[in-house]
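Whether sequence alone determines local backbone shape is best considered at the level of individual chains. When preparing material for the folding task, we compiled for one chain both its residues and its backbone structure tokens. No coordinates are needed to read the tokens, only the vocabulary itself. For completeness, the protein is quoted in full, as a sequence line and a line of structure tokens:
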Amino acid sequence: MLFLVHMQVNIPHDPDPTAAAALIAEEKAYSQELQRDGRWRHLWRVVGQYANYSVFDVAGNDELHLMLSALPLYPYMTLEVTPLAQHPSALAAN
């Protein structure tokens, strides 16, 4: 199943710089692992914001929830999830 996920990150304004850098590095490593295995298909930055739009290809709601809640920055995120379906006018199959 494909899901479009909008992630808005809101790290507190006064975090410990070392801890924040470590958390961001963990987030990057985990997200790249999911991209390599094909479950995180697309990752697009929102210009001017600490936010992204991503497309996930997973078995279902439960798998997506487990993946998202395992993100190191998850406690600082606001998420919007939209299930996607193939459009009948699309030239390419997904």
